[in-house]
């Protein structure tokens, strides 16, 4: 092939997306590919190795693409930079056999298999016919996952006991949601009567497969890993930090930064708490007061509608002043998360063609009464101007980026850092003048600082500093981390427990919020210094949101140029 016909990095990246979708129809569904709706991926060790082969082949093609004329343009260079970093980080995780001990309360093969049904099209009878086929594929997908974990046992690669116990409980909830039906059966119940027999049979088989996995995890896997550590140690932790954050982080510096933010935020929280409950011993006493006496929304339907109004208001006030939003980016929906979800709210981006909008999800955890103080900044984070504006903008300008940059190339710390930056931006713009809402925002910021401290601290088993008001000089353990988190958060005990399990089973992911925010703020400040009086925040926001994802090693440099 001549040089003039050789693909450039963006073409290589988009070819990778096409080939990835062929292997992973879950990714296809999240991207809005209709043909993916009837299938699930091969989740066995062979399927994981097929993904790795694709990554290696793509890196080889990228080597050639970067030698082509035009590959040094900004748009090609950013795409190549992201693709190489992401595939290399993923391969490092694969080659360490991390997939053979991937057990989590939030992110595992089983969670992906269930969650994909929440975004699978169901508008027509043909859509539901594809759902029947996908339901029939659930047993094989869960069996492939079991085979991966079984191979991990053979190689003495163990997941953490705490995450395993939690996951067993979740599988039990998925098998029986409280009315004698499993989650898949409940999902299938809303399908058309013309397909009722097939839906019921396939959903019933899926529930049987969930129970089989639950029983194996409980009776075989959990006893086999008893006594294994829940923490991963410095080597594994550094590998996961690269995967989730796109950086080879100075872990000790990041740990110290977490503590510096802790002390700064604690001072601000005390100021706001005094306005709410004068003389409160700690800010969390004031927050507990708000749990009982503060502003609340009553009812599940009511809170969903109210959260929608929070995002609608943000769009109306920010569009044209601090952002320029395309009409389809302005559409975002608030929904209630399905039973058996983790405790934290989350967001799913729109399909590539925007026929499925961006969606924020609230797990109710059985509650029907919702304090306002801890929801407002959270919905600025999950919805507008947080995850939704960034991820939907990537979709909107995908043709100017690449399909890869706008979708599967996302770096967690880039996206979570933007969303935390978005919370701070709303505070800077004066949206959080009410003491309840501002204390809730600071509490959410403190939670992210605490994540840096305890995620790094417990996985590396570091010492708590002498100037800490909490157990100075002691060495971090998961038990101490849970105690610290509970003492420095307004969240209920079940949320705190769920969060700690998440940190233990997704090492290095939770630190990306605060460290990503630091990168976004530093990039903005350097761009402001570079442009001086000519710096325009709205223009910078749109340029920043239009460059696609980057790892933290690259993000500050690129933001500074804008």
TrEMBL record:
<dbReference type="InterPro" id="IPR010281">
    <property type="entry name" value="DUF885"/>
</dbReference>
<protein>
    <recommendedName>
        <fullName>DUF885 domain-containing protein</fullName>
    </recommendedName>
</protein>
<dbReference type="Pfam" id="PF05960">
    <property type="entry name" value="DUF885"/>
</dbReference>
